């Protein structure tokens, strides 16, 4: 999941070197914290949050295959 999120984010932003994903494992779920450069926040979130929603949908769909719950947080 972490690699998938990192790949998607790096494909969207202007500064792919600034993209980092932190994985926090809980008892029943995994939280992926995505950090990007301040100037690239709009590209990752999109108009009315559409891109962020699409990213979350893709990552959650991949997690279902492994019987895990994943939450994606975009951190500034």
From TrEMBL:
Protein known as: RNA-binding protein KhpA
Lineage start: Bacteria, Bacillati, Bacillota, Clostridia, Eubacteriales
Organism for this UniProt entry: Pseudobacteroides cellulosolvens ATCC 35603 = DSM 2933
Main location: cytoplasm
Family: Belongs to the KhpA RNA-binding protein family.
Function as written in the Swiss-Prot or TrEMBL entry: A probable RNA chaperone. Forms a complex with KhpB which binds to cellular RNA and controls its expression. Plays a role in peptidoglycan (PG) homeostasis and cell length regulation.
Assembly and oligomerization: Forms a complex with KhpB.
Subcellular location per the Swiss-Prot or TrEMBL entry: Cytoplasm
Keyword S-adenosyl-L-methionine part of the UniProt annotation: no
């Amino acid at each position: 999941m972490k690699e998938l999120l990192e790949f998607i984010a790096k494909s969207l932003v202007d500064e792919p070197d600034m993209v980092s994903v932190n994985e926090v494992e809980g008892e029943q779920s995994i939280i992926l914290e995505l950090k990007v450069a301040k100037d690239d926040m709009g590209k990752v979130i999109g108009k009315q949050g559409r891109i962020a929603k699409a990213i979350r949908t893709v990552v959650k769909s991949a997690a279902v295959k492994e019987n895990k719950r994943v939450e994606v947080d975009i951190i500034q």
